[in-house]
Design a protein that fits this description.
Elements lengths: L18 E5 L18 E5 L8 H5 L4 E4 L6 H4 L7 E4 L9 H6 L3 E3 L6 H16 L2 H9 L2 H5 L16 E5 L3 H12 L3 E5 L10 E2 L2 H7 L2 E4 L13 H6 L5 E4 L8 H9 L5 E4 L12 H5 L5 E3 L8 H19 L9
Parallel strand pairs: 1-2, 1-3, 3-4, 4-5, 6-7, 6-9, 7-8, 9-10, 10-11, 11-12
Length: 335
Amino acid sequence: MAAGTSPNKPGDKVDEDAHRIAFLDRGTIGPGVELRRPTFDHQWTDYERTDPDEVIARLQGVHIAITNKVPIRSETLAHLSDLRFVAVAATGTDVIDLAACREREIRVSNIQGYAATTVAEHTFAVILGLRRNLFQYRNEVIDGAWQDAQQYCYFNRPVHDLAGATLGLVGTGAIATAVGQLGEAFGMRVIYHSLSGRTIADKELVSLNELFGTADIISLHCPLSEASRSLVGRLRFEQMKPDALLVNTARGEIVDLEDLQVAIDGNLIGGAAIDVAAVEPPPLDSPLMKLASHPNFLLTPHTAWASVEAMQVLADQLIDNLEAFVSGSPEHLVN
């Protein structure tokens, strides 16, 4: 098979020396994004989506697996003797059993440094929307409330500036610092807390108690870990100012959703914007869906990372990772 050719149908006959590649959830990369094929000899098979019980069959005989959100666990790896490399098409690697991969000498890479701009811009889009009540005002204008008011402006709810407000960031990585830079540009005081103890030069680091007790807006930018799982629950909501906002573009499991619903419905906090869920899409009876129409709540379908520009960087780095592994000089390894 010539280098770079890529039959896309399972079962195609290929050269024995070709690297067999399967992308388990190609549908997680936008259709407008170009995903170039590697320059080495290969057979490439795309699957739009893959259910957990389909993983073993689809990775039989595969040397390189690509996954964004499809889990590959220890019990699955036990059936995949040909697998040598897992390329995660995302930064988070919690869908992969890294210890089991290490035991089986399967290398794992992820995507690094691609999402700081897009997540930071999304974070401020929802912050501005909530602080200025844009979503509720839009709905009321459509419903004729401006005409009913019979004056040049219609204001029945507060609009707040960002300048002078305190932005609390849980995390000190590239995305958190990008959000912090935008906050500083708006004239905000920006404070940080690191769950890992990592410091960043010339930034104000505070305890978690101080951050939740003093910030006007709290934005989560930390990985999912034992330290961050269910980090934000009833006690944290009770610490927050009654008009403070919570933004989560990190991982769904970081926020206790039952407690979030209580906090929003009970006006314990000013509002929240959530872009991630433990189960995606969330069930229709989940707290997130019950809150979806609340005027101080904004639910977006895991799109903070998904600008066309960011996805193209991700796609290019994904193929770079494959080519680096095959060349013997793997990059962005996480195990």
